[in-house]
Amino acid sequence: MGIIRKDETELFERYGVKKTPTIIVVKPTEKKPIYYKGEINYKAIFDFLNVYTETFVPGGDELNNDKPWTREMFPELTAKSANDICFNVKFHLIS
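RE: above sequence
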């Protein structure tokens, strides 16, 4: 996600932007950008962008690859993940 300022004319020309705001999805795996043509409101923009979200984006090396279970809905319990999943978790018992 990014913002292009008016003085960055080369990007306006590159993507054919004539007016602002303009929402474009640029994926490294696609040849052409995907232009949003809907209403400018939260729900419509969210629905559009949600289609293009990915868990593992190419080039995402900055993610914590040492602990992949922190990004899983149902993490596998292993010797490496046990402390984060179970053993070092504090529980509050109600009696």
